[in-house]
Write a structure and sequence with these properties.
There is one protein chain. The protein is about 35% helix and about 25% strand. The chain is α/β, with parallel strands linked by helices. α2 links the parallel β3 and β4.
């Protein structure tokens, strides 16, 4: 992903890989900063996919997601 991305932000709730925190918190922060977002890619449990789907649809971002059964 890094090879084809200008910016890649990986989050985990416990910080075991990438940035610590919820992906939705990071999205809100990027929006508040005025960051240009062309595409949101998300993979994780169904509950996280739901949490990402609603705001990205509201903000009008292109998005792709893959759920991982929990």
């Amino acid at each position: 992903m890094r090879a084809v991305s200008d910016t890649l932000i990986v989050t985990t709730d416990d910080g075991s890989y990438g940035q610590k925190g919820l992906v939705t918190d990071w999205l809100r922060e990027l929006i508040a900063r005025g960051t240009q977002i062309d595409l949101v890619l998300a993979a994780g449990p169904v509950v996280m996919m739901r949490a990402v789907a609603e705001p990205t649809a509201r903000w009008g971002f292109a998005r792709w997601s893959a759920s991982i059964p929990s």
